[in-house]
Hints:
Blueprint: E1 7-9, E2 12-15, E3 21-24, E4 27-31, E5 36-39, H1 45-51, E6 58-59, E7 64-66, H2 74-91, E8 93-94
Antiparallel strand pairs: 1-4, 2-3, 2-8, 4-5, 5-7, 6-7
Amino acid sequence: MWGATIVGFGKYHYKYKSGREGEAPILGFSPRKSAISLYVYANTEKSKALLKDLGKFKMGKACIYVKKLTDIDLQILKQLCQESITYIQAHHQSACHDK
């Protein structure tokens, strides 16, 4: 658990240019009242292309909001998750892959 409401898988260490740093889950989700929040890194070119085929969702700053899982293509979500893991393992020190 990450906080009171986020179910997270794996972890990685991040550090911003501002000097702020911390740990975050590699993937995560949170069932909220208004939508399911999916925490995946979706800022690569491949991820952006996959988002076009995902289905009905809203994009937040660091997550994807989905009303119902039936609104999205779960195979595309799986590919987004795989792309997120690949990116994070390549660019950050993580608990499941040392850089």
